[in-house]
Amino acid sequence: MNDSQIDELAKLPVGVAAVYHNDWLEPVLCHIDKYNAEGEYTDCPDEVSDDGKTEVLKYLIDSMAGKELDDGVKENVERLLKEGRVSSEIKVKLLSRIRNKQQIDEELLSRYINDVYGECDSAFCVASEAGDIQEWNNILVENIDRHLLDLNIEYRNIVVRSILNERAKNDIYFEDMSIKWTNYMVHHGLI
After folding, report:
1. pTM of the model
2. Nearest to 67 by CA among 104, 14, 38
């Protein structure tokens, strides 16, 4: 477009646009009719899928606990792991253990949790406004991934403990929170 054409863009009426591509000789004017919607617009976001993360998490925790696991569930977890957003290294190790019917150890479970749920800085920011550890824990879990609320408290606490322990390795604040959280949970019989 030349300078005079660019100056004319501001003069175009509402609903008219100039469309131009580098390979085209001239821009093209397009007129778009006004959309007449019936009723008021409301934003309805799609239900956010957890992509099977909670099912995989539950399976891994149960495996770590030595529970006998159903073959149908095992096959579904293998499929979810293959399709899921997990680092290749963790995915390969987990699939190998599952296929060979080996127990999942705490370190591998923790690596999975931190890979899947560990990017949760905003959850910690929201939870920092809590009045006590129990409220902090509830807010944190809800903001890490609301699908975790579908799991029982033991599973949720394993997720929080894993994330806190990982963050405590590099940050004194999280080391302190990990100690406070653990003391609270032990004192109240929650872990």
Report:
1. 0.70
2. 104
